[in-house]
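agent> Task received from the user: take the single chain below, predict its 3D structure, and emit structure tokens. No templates, no multimer pairing.
agent> Plan: (1) validate residues, (2) run structure prediction, (3) serialize to tokens, (4) report one or two observations.
agent> Step 1 OK, no nonstandard residues flagged.
tool_call: predict_structure(input=
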Amino acid sequence: VYNPFDFFVEESAETFPFDYPEEIKEDLAIYRTPEPAGPLLSKFLESIDRSPTNTVNFLVDLNARLQREIAYIVRMETGVFSPEETLAAAKGSCRDSSWLLVQILR
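)
tool_result: status=success, residues=106
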């Protein structure tokens, strides 16, 4: 598997979907708890193929999909769009797209 980012993936997480070991689940809970999903995010989440696949390939494909579906804009105003706002507008700043990706991956 080609990993364009040259990072290591724990053996237990090489195939998506995966589950974290019980001994670290509690420590990770704060990072894994999503905000409530609105209708657009729910629809997006439902469209994600959860068939077993290489985790790095899954992440690369998900990022490529967001790049295709969400246009990049420069926003000078403060704040971050919610996933619903970003999906509805089909555009957002890097922080908006990043927050959308965080919520998708949670």
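agent> Step 4: summary for the user.
The chain has one domain: 11-105.
agent> Done.
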